[in-house]
C-alpha cells in the first residue's frame, strides 16, 4: 500500500505533471480513434484516400479549393475538435458567411458529430450555445461574417473560414489580427471557388498547389482526371495510358508550386471514388445538367469566368461591403429603381458620405405588384424613382404620373447622351443603354455602391450582375461599339442602374454632395429640355 502524499508532495506532483509536455495525438490518429461518422461508424478513408494526407498535414496555413460534398466540412470539424482537445486551453474562431448558416451548421452537422462521438461528448463544458462552445477547457466561437459589423474581439489560436468566396472579405481580413498573440497562429480556409483570382482561388494560387493524381491499378500510371477520360457508355474513368478502368481509390498528391509558404489542396469530384461517374455525367449533359459555370465550381472545384460579365462576385465582395450598410424596411428621402421583366424588381438606396448605399431590394412575386411599388414608395419616403418603361409601358406611365416630379419612366434610345428629359412627355427620361449600365458598373467597381449584409436577395443581385457581359465590336467603318449582353436573368442589375439614375436626377454627380437627409433638388435642365451630368 502506497503511503499517502503530504500536501507539499501533492502540490509538487501536480506541478510536475502540468510542466511535463503533453504528448499530443496527431489529427489523423485522433480522428480515427475519437471521431464517428453521423451514423456512428468509425472514420475510414477507403473511398476518400485523398483526405489522409490532408488529415496528416501539420502546416499552420492550409487552404482547400474544393468541389461540393468532398469531405471539407468534416475535415474542418475534426480540425476544430482535435485542436480544442489536444491543445487545450486554446481559442478557435470558426466563420461562415451568415448567422443563418452558423445555425444550420451547428444544428445539422456540428452537434450531431459531437452526439455520436463519446470521447468528445464527455468533454463539452458548461458553455454550449449556437455561437460559443466550451470543449475540453478550450473555447470555440462560431460567427457569420456578414452578421457582425466587425470581427469578434477575442484572441485566437486557430481560424477556420468556411465558404470563403461567399463571406465578407473585410471581416475575414480583420480576423488575421486576432492571431497576433498566439503561439500557434493556425489558419484553415476552404470554399467552393467562384471566379478566378478571388477568394479561395487567389489563396490557392499563392499556395504550393497540391493536385490529386489518380493512380491506375493496372499500369500504375498517375494522372490528373479530365472529362475526356470518362467512358460515358460504361460510366467509368479510364487511364489515359493503358485505357483500363480506374477505381479512383489509389492516388497521390503532387505540388504544382513547391516551396510556397501556404499549403494548398484542390479537391475535384472527378478524383473522388465515392462520387460515381454516372452522377457526374448527369450533371454534365443529363436532363438535370448544371450550367457550365456551376459544373466547374461545384463538380470540378475550379474557378470559372464563364458567364461572368464586367462586374463579378470578386469585385462586389471586395468593394461593396466596406461601409457596414444595414438593411432597412422603411425610411425617408430615399431613391428607387424599378425594372420590368417577368416580375417587378426594385432597388432602394440612400446616399451616405457620397456613396449610394442600397438598403432594400425585392423581387415582387405578387400579381398586384404595382400596388407593392406604391407601398414601398410610402414606406421609404422615396423622393426620386426611375422605372423601366418597357414592356408594360401603360402600367409604368400610369405609375409615374401618380408621382409628378418624383417618378420618371426611362426608355433606352439610340443617343450619345447618357440621360435627357423628353421634350413632350413630362414623366419620361431617355438615355443610352450602354452608357447607363457603364455608369452603374463603374460605380460598383469604384466602391461607390455599398450593399447591406448578404442574404438571399443580395446573392441574387450578385448573380444578376454577373449575367451581364460588356462586349466591344468593330463596325464596317472600323469604329468600336460597346454593348451589354444579357446572359440570363439580370433584372436586379437593371433595377440597380435605374436606382442610380434616380440619384443622378435629384443629385447630379455624387463626387461632392450632401447626405440624403440634407439633399436639395439639383436637377439641371439644359437647352431643349436636355439634362447633362458629369459621368460617374
Structural commentary:
This protein has 536 residues and is of the alpha/beta class. Helix content is 30%, strand content 24%. The strands form five sheets. Strands 3-4-5-2-6-7-1-14 form an eight-stranded mixed β-sheet, sandwiched between helices. It has an eight-stranded mixed β-sheet with strand order 20-21-19-18-15-16-17-22, sandwiched between helices. Residues 510-536 have low confidence and may be disordered.
Q: Which percent bin holds the helix content?
A: 25-40%
Backbone CA Rg? 28 Å
Largest sheet: 8 strands, mixed
Tell how many strands the DSSP assignment holds: 24
Number of helical segments?
A: 16
Mean pLDDT: 87
Strand order of the largest sheet: 3-4-5-2-6-7-1-14
Please mark out the parts with pLDDT under 50 across 5 or more consecutive residues, or reply none: 510-536
CATH topology of the largest domain: Rossmann fold
How far do the termini sit from each other?
88 Å
Tell me the β content. 15-25%
The assembly state of the depicted protein chains is single chain
Secondary-structure class: alpha/beta
Gross morphology = globular
Q: What's the domain count?
A: 2
Characteristics of this structure?
single chain; 536 residues; alpha/beta; Rossmann fold; Nucleotidyltransferase, domain 5; 2 domains; eight-stranded mixed beta sheet; 16 helices
